[in-house]
Design a protein that fits this description.
This protein has 361 residues and is of the alpha+beta class. Strands 1, 2, 3, 4, 5, 6, 7, 8, 9, 10, 11 and 12 form a twelve-stranded mixed sheet that branches. A hairpin with a 2-residue loop joins strand 9 and strand 10. Helix 2 packs antiparallel against helix 8.
Length: 361
């Protein structure tokens, strides 16, 4: 069974008729995606995040404030009383220079465009103009790295400004409203492991203490010889922000003796739920509990949103696990820019003087 517990992974349960210990009633059921056409520009940044095709939970102010307090800014292009485009930027200051980076536990940010009903060819030209203006607003940075939303598909303005990009992948279940279809679309071995976990007496609860989840999460990274993606303090701050501004849930697989085998953490906003974190007890990893917990998460998510984003990984075992759910591979841009390495003594001296000046300033 693939290990899907690293930075955002997990798996599933059984056909829809299966009994579940988690209540899903009295939850708003998703009825349709927000329209992609708006006659009026969003009046606020938060409205833009909700309406933009490039919007996600990671772009909301409350998310940025939880993960990068005092270390982010939002570049905007206004038209009248509305916002045409915006760009959330997270940065760290080092030696007096600005380094644009991705905050922990955040898959993507990037430029957000307001929806429009203009023709496609005109839309591309307009968005290129907006992107170029935002790049000019950003100005020079010591270095730059940001992942963009999968619906940001034209990075030419960055290429023209000397940036580079590489493709990364996430895995998405685009429509989880028909759970039987999702179940049938899984790999047979996923369904088998989920059934095995259920037959062995693993049940799913949604009452796991956050501290216990963090313990499982730490154990997973330690087993892999890696440091956790974020500190406990940061995760708890984000957890409070999710509870206050969007939605979040923990699902844990527990056996008849009360032992917690594995747990998954999901959060949702707008039309998408995201698998943010997972963890498992190293000695109990083969029980299939992590698959069962993730399947329960997908079942629950179908009652509040339409899409489920596994926050795909470039790690081969994790990638296989996500594909096993029948999730679609979705590419997105990871755009970077680093200063060129000095190739002569004079260039080195100029770079050194600039570095010292920035530090003094």
């Amino acid at each position: 069974m693939p290990d899907l517990t690293s930075a955002g992974v997990q798996e599933a349960q059984v056909p829809i008729g299966v009994e579940s210990s988690v209540e899903r009633a009295a939850v708003w059921r998703y009825t349709g995606a927000p329209t992609a056409r708006f006659a009026k520009l969003p009046a606020t940044y938060e409205e833009l995040v909700t309406q933009s095709p490039q919007g996600s939970i990671f772009a909301h102010r409350w998310w940025l404030e939880a993960l990068a307090p005092g270390m982010y800014e939002i570049l905007k292009i206004n038209e009248g009383d509305g916002i045409q485009a915006a760009w959330p930027i997270v940065y760290r200051n080092s030696d007096g220079a600005k380094h644009v980076c991705m905050p922990a536990l955040s898959q993507k940010l990037g430029i957000l465009f307001a929806p429009s009903d203009i023709e496609s060819v005109e839309m591309q030209s307009k968005n290129q103009e907006l992107a170029t203006e935002l790049i000019e607003q950003l100005g020079d940075t010591a270095n730059f790295h940001q992942n963009f939303h999968e619906n940001f598909t034209d990075w030419l303005p960055f290429y023209w400004q000397g940036y580079t990009q590489t493709a990364r992948y996430t895995y998405v279940l685009e429509d989880i409203s028909d759970l039987t279809s999702v179940w049938n679309g899984m790999r047979p071995n996923h369904r088998r492991d989920i059934r095995k976990a259920m037959k062995s007496g693993i049940r799913i609860i949604d009452t796991l203490d956050t501290e216990r989840f963090l313990e499982l999460n730490r154990k997973t990274f330690h087993r892999q010889g890696r440091e956790p993606l974020a500190s406990d303090e940061l995760i708890l701050r984000l957890d409070r922000a999710c509870c206050a501004n969007a939605g979040r849930k923990l699902f844990a697989g527990v056996d008849s003796e009360g032992r917690v085998h594995a747990a998954v953490y999901i959060a949702w906003a707008n039309d998408t739920a995201y698998y943010l974190m997972g963890g498992s007890e190293p000695s109990l990893r083969k029980s299939g509990a992590q698959l069962l917990a993730l399947w329960e998460a997908v079942i629950f998510a179908s009652s509040v949103v339409k899409r489920f984003d596994f926050e795909g990984s470039m790690l081969q075992p994790v990638e296989r696990g996500f594909r096993g759910f029948g999730a679609r591979q979705v590419p997105y841009f990871s755009i970077t820019k680093v200063p060129p390495t000095p190739t002569s003594l004079s260039e080195f001296l100029k770079a050194s003087i600039k570095h010292r000046w920035n530090r003094a300033a």
